[in-house]
Amino acid sequence: MAEYDAQPGRTPPPAPDLSPAQLEADELDLHAGLAGVAGIVSGARGVVEMLGDVAEFAVRAIPCVDGAGVTLVHPSDGPPRIETWSVTADFIRQIDTVQYDELREGPCITCMQSQRPAVSGSLGSDYRWPRFGGRVARMGVHSVLALPLMVGDQVIGAINAYAHARDAFTEHAVKLGAEFAAPAAVAVYNAHLLDQARERTLQLQRALDSRAVIDQAIGIVRSRSGDDAHAAFERLTRISQNENTKLHVVAERLVEEAARRARARHR
Q1: Number of domains the chain is built from
Q2: SS3 labels along 187-202
Q3: Does one domain contain both 190 and 211?
Q4: 2, 157, 175, 219: which is deepest, by most CB within 10 A?
Q5: pLDDT digits 0-9 by tens, 212-226
Q6: Rounded distance, CA 69 to CA 46, Å?
Q7: pTM (2 d.p.)
Q8: Residue 166: which of 211, 122, 112 has the closest Cα?
Q9: How far from 177 is each of 59, 102, 109, 248, CA to CA, in Å?
Q10: What is the DSSP code (8-state) at residue 128?
Q11: 178 and 150 belong to one structural domain
């Protein structure tokens, strides 16, 4: 059984008296969720869509979930920035706004700090999050299972599963959730790495495109002025500074002007 942090002062709900058929059904749902996560591959789909799949698979894999979300941690110079990436229901996004943006307290933050699942069966009376719990309970949401997403010793985010009923998540649900979270963390990590790699590739391509245009503009200035490459670049830089315009924009304008003149001469 995975270790987890239960709600202090509240007796955990008893283990459900599940029939063999129900146990088998839960195992099948878990394996279907795991198979779905394992089948997530890179391609034309963006990271948000891929993480949306992870959230949907979590709803299937964990019993009694009414809605789930996937959250990622972004390292920064100050405190790590927590951001919701995908949710299966609008009320999850409302909860996450309260937790991350307004109050900065709640089960997701706690589970990522402790690196252990956090469970609550009555959020309105859970003194770990006195402001958050009351707000969410007034939304009609009373149970939460927050699962840290771990890759090695690094916390990369969390899966947050919520239910309207009280005491929705028993140890059985926690066990299934922990089994799902381990491979899901790898899928989320890979999806995030893919998104970062795509963004770096686009940035590099934009830089290369800008460099090519600047080189063309330098050639045009040299042909008109007789300057060497360094002096021509300095001319472009001064124009950029004087007009408070990015250098590549100045270069593009100069290249387009030269092209218009060439077309006019041909006509």
Answers
A1: 2
A2: HHHHHHHHHHHHHHHH
A3: no
A4: 157
A5: 888 888 888 888 888
A6: 17
A7: 0.70
A8: 122
A9: 10, 27, 17, 51
A10: T
A11: yes
